[in-house]
Hints:
Blueprint (H helix, E strand, L loop, with lengths): L16 H10 L4 E7 L2 E10 L4 E9 L9 H14 L10 E4 L9 H7 L16
Parallel strand pairs: 3-4
Antiparallel strand pairs: 1-2, 2-3
Amino acid sequence: MAVRAIPHGWRSTARTAADWASHLAEHPRRRYWLLTHDGEPAGVANLEPHPDGDVEITTFGLVPEHVGRGLGGYALTLALRQAWATEPLGAESVRRVRLHTDTDDHPNALRNYENRGLRPYDVRTETVGTA
């Protein structure tokens, strides 16, 4: 079995064309943005509207070369502006913007989210088994 490297730990970078076609068909409302800095890819932000006016930031992150350069706050501000401007699904306006995080995220991620006005809504503890 061949093992494919996954750049930046992002599973999406290992998708084949067929995998992408299936993924896009499963998420027809999701929108994808490439964040750039000085013309170079710096990160990604993906948004998906949900019923009742929720918009989820399904993916947000910077590539390692751009981490620690002061871009995360600005990039998240842009993603949040886009989320609030997204056409709501089943509501007159966007009611809430959601973003999931976990302990695998950058150590400054939660502080960045809170500094941009996001607040914890739900906290869960999951145990990952070792096979």
